[in-house]
Amino acid sequence: MDVDTRFNDSSFTTNTMSLPPTIIPAKRRVRRKRRQTATAVTPPAPGAPALVAVVYVAGTSLRLTFDRAIDISAIDAGTIFVSDADVGEVLFGDGPISQPAAMSVQMGLAGFEPSTLPGVTLNAGAYTGIVAVDGGMQWAGAENVEIPF
């Protein structure tokens, strides 16, 4: 048996090292939808008026100023109280009620009972009848707000 010596068995062995391909495939592109631009954003609904200032003339009058225009057509001033230890009385809203500016209300005060609390504080129930012009939300009132505020 004649053996062909031109081909050595070692020349037919496979190489165990992997070679990189000659063309590297690109990563797949992901298409994303474009964001839609906001057209007309509606502003949030207006809220209830917030108290920003209190002016108190001892035993005589009270002015409340809010952060927005208010409507006082249904005001119940009797639900607004000032406890004044200096005067010695708890006073409630009474007498002439006016609106010197769109964001404020002014009222006279009348004595109600002796004051037992120290200092000067404002208390107003949730049903004062003071509402925002824009949206009609009612003022939540105030509890033991120190004056001057």
Topology, pairings included?
Blueprint: E1 51-57, E2 61-66, E3 70-71, E4 80-84, E5 89-98, E6 104-114, E7 120-124, E8 131-132, E9 142-146
Antiparallel strand pairs: 1-2, 2-6, 3-8, 4-5, 4-7, 5-6, 7-9
Would you mind describing this structure in some detail?
- The structure is a single chain.
- With 149 residues, the chain is mainly beta.
- It has a domain at 51-146: Sandwich (Immunoglobulin-like).
- 0% of the residues lie in helices and 36% in strands.
- It is built from no helices and 9 strands.
- It has strands at residues 51-57, 61-66, 70-71, 80-84, 89-98, 104-114, 120-124, 131-132, 142-146.
- The strands form 2 sheets. A 7-stranded antiparallel β-sheet has the order 1-2-6-5-4-7-9, with no helix packed on it. It has a two-stranded antiparallel sheet with strand order 3-8.
Give short descriptive properties of this protein:
single chain; 149 residues; mainly beta; Immunoglobulin-like; two-stranded antiparallel ribbon; elongated
Distance between the termini: 118 Å
Question: Considering DSSP H and I runs of 4 or more, what fraction of the residues is helical?
Answer: under 10%
Give average pLDDT, whole number.
85
CATH class of the domain at 51-146 reads Mainly Beta
What class do helices, strands and sheet pairing give? Answer: mainly beta
Counting H and I runs of at least 4 residues, what is the number of helices? 0
User: What's the number of extended β-strand segments?
Assistant: 9
Biggest sheet architecture: 7 strands, antiparallel
Enumerate the strands of the largest sheet in spatial order, edge to edge or round the barrel. 1-2-6-5-4-7-9
Question: Which stretches are low in confidence, meaning pLDDT under 50 for 5 or more residues running?
Answer: none
Q: What is the C-alpha radius of gyration, as a whole number of Å?
A: 40 Å
Range of strand content: 35-45%
